[in-house]
Amino acid sequence: MSTSILNIQRDLILNTIRYAAGNEWKVLVVDETSRKLIDNAVSEDDILNLNVTNVEQIEHRRSPNPTMDALYILSPLPHIVDCIMADFERKRYRKAWLVWTSFLDPEQRARLDRSQLARDQIANVQIMNADYFPRESRLITFRDPWSFPVLFHPGCNHLIRAHLEGLAQKIVSLCASLGEYPVIRYYRPRAPTHEASVLCSHLARFIQNELDQFAQFQRDFPPPSPRPRGVLLIVDRSMDLIAPLLHEFTYQSMVHDLLPISDGDKVTYKTVINEGSHNEELKDMEINEEDNVWVEYRHMHMKDVLGKLGEDFAKFRAANPQFAEDNNKANVNTIKDMLAGLTEFQKGRDAYTLHLNMAQECMSYFQKHKLLEVSSVEQCFATGMDENYKKAKNLASQLVQLLDDDAIKQPERLRLLLLYIIYRGGILAGDIRKLLAHAQLAPQDGEIVANLDLLGARVEKPLKDDKPPVQPLFTRKPPSGPIDEEESLSRYDLNLKLILEELVRGTLDPSVFPFTRPHTDTDTPGQQEGLSQASLRSAKPTWARTRSTGEQPKQRIIVFMAGGATYGEARTCYEISQTCGKDVFLATSHMLSPGLFLRQVGDLSVDRRRLDIPAERPKPTAPAHLFEREAPPAPAQPVKKPVPVNLKPMAPTSALATMSLGTNGKAANGAAPPEKEKDKKEKKEKKEKKHRFFR
């Protein structure tokens, strides 16, 4: 069974809430950032089932609760430390059980250590190591699209060190969650021409230092494990500039390329549900791991998706005949069955509706804008070979022909031009201007072309060029057998796939992917296959000793892609995990669609101040209301006695009429007084209700 980082983080958060503050009832206090981490992994119901009375946000106004303990799960930020210090000053809760999502800066930790109020109220402090956002079982993001300009914009050099240190802490947090103290390798280009070529080496060094410090202070890290030692591979976007420009025709890649997907805290798509019926609505549908249709289809080729989606939806309807719209024979029993399964049916029906609509819209765009022809030429640019794996010819004329076609939209024209320039290893400046004009591209598109050199591509070259052509990272080899049309449109193997295959075989070039530390044979994945049994024999759990070879714990490979990763690269990690018997995870700052990649490359020549990079915004501060004195409770107002009103005197006989003369509370005639008769009646009714409740 492969490991899911979603489940790992979910268990980590729930176990922290379950055990960090004992079994007593408590308030969970979070901040804006930590709340997003928690909401991404667990539901509020899951939290409230763990002796949590309610969830409060530390930046918000909150009522004092001095009789209740508080479990704080907070981001290690200076203004959040200010917030919790304000809580201590007001003794807002009885005791504080403090959990940081990652390491707290030593200066901020010293503030808490020096404070007598903090020492008096803090019951325990721990680190959860959960400062990342799992998106899929093998995909982790940091939700930080601003990482790209910080790493590659020429005006952001002063921000890089702090940013790399922050990335290193997040990556170590991920390694700690997985229980991995990995061997670290990083990408070092052969003949770099861009300033950011040293990015991976610096980041790898920061990560190594953070990991070493973590292991020094956490004596139980790494925990005993029967797995071979993991590998952390540090690469950046410049390692493969072709991947974010190609049209891919697997479902997930195509959807994010061609459709207006909203990609924020949630991934959603706006589509029509119940079309043609009285309850038709336009709805934002979430796309996530709980959508079984999405999980099953996302890595399939669109051709296969279209066929299978229709078949599966027909099976789904056949399996739920009670929900057929023409079902007029419903009786009481079938209606009860329908109500019992209605929620699941609606969820499944909406999921199929969503994916049928998305698949149809993708294919409509594909046909309308001639993506088959576009992709065929793209693959020639990417590989340098035609469909028969022979040297491609007449590519310039094929490019011009596509640029002349009105059906080809502006984004496709720009992507074709960029791929052509990369394929040629740069072209004359005059030719670039002519092609931009011929393609009728906007002036800002020329900025995108020029900015590719900041990522290591050669864009312009002189008429007499003495420089040797840029060597590809890998030599492309033709397949051994015949290929079909589907394979011909995906001839380009992503560099990440080739890197992982070489890594698993133990043949990855150490001059291009060096280690941060001198390594031994046991650090190389390809050499570890023979060591797995020894690892299993020495492991403590007895259940591991009886495993068959195919069930041995898999080695983990963690890839960090600085500057954003593509959905094709995410799919590659699943494929390598399946074919090579490894657990491969992809972590990145953010996910790149082709459109986002083009926008971010274009921004590399924009004035840095216009980018609104969070690191250059004013530092957040604790809200002022946290430091306000609580208003004392208003004194109770004396209750005024009502002024007696002049009432008509009652005749004594009227009072005598209701007076009891007996000793047992009965009237003279033996009957109970009216009030007592009423009490008996109410008690009898309550007793009957109680009996009815327990029937």
Walk me through the structure:
- The protein is of the alpha/beta class and 695 residues long.
- The protein folds into four domains: 5-129, Rossmann fold, CATH 3.40.50.2060; 134-240 and 494-594 and 604-616, Sec1/Munc18 (SM) protein, domain 2 (Rossmann fold, 3-Layer(aba) Sandwich); 260-365, Sec1/Munc18 (SM) protein, domain 3a (Syntaxin Binding Protein 1, Chain A, domain 2, Alpha-Beta Complex); 369-492, Alpha Horseshoe (Serine Threonine Protein Phosphatase 5, Tetratricopeptide repeat), CATH 1.25.40.60.
- Helix content is 43%, strand content 11%.
- It is built from 25 helices and 16 strands.
- The chain has a six-stranded mixed β-sheet, with helices on both faces. The protein has a five-stranded parallel β-sheet with strand order 2-1-3-4-5. Strands 10-11-12 form a three-stranded antiparallel β-sheet, with helices on one face.
- β6 and β7 (139-141) form a beta hairpin.
- α15 (395-403) packs antiparallel against α16.
- The longest helix has 37 residues, at 332-368.
- It is globular.
- Mean pLDDT is 85; it is low at 326-336, 527-549, 649-674 and 686-695.
The whole-angstrom Rg is 34 Å
Instruction: Provide the β-strand percentage band.
Output: 5-15%
- Proportion of residues in helical segments: 40-55%
Name of the CATH first level of the largest domain: Alpha Beta
Q: For this structure, what is the CATH homologous superfamily of the largest domain?
A: Sec1/Munc18 (SM) protein, domain 2
DSSP strand count? 16
Mean pLDDT reading: 85
| Category from helices, strands and their pairing | alpha/beta
Q: What overall geometry do the principal axes of the alpha carbons give?
A: globular
Main sheet characteristics: 6 strands, mixed
CATH topology of the largest domain: Rossmann fold
**What's the total helix number?**
25
Number of domains: 4
CATH level-two architecture of the largest domain: 3-Layer(aba) Sandwich
Spans of at least 5 consecutive residues with low confidence: 326-336, 527-549, 649-674, 686-695
User: Strand order within the widest sheet?
Assistant: 6-7-15-13-9-8
Distance between the termini: 47 Å
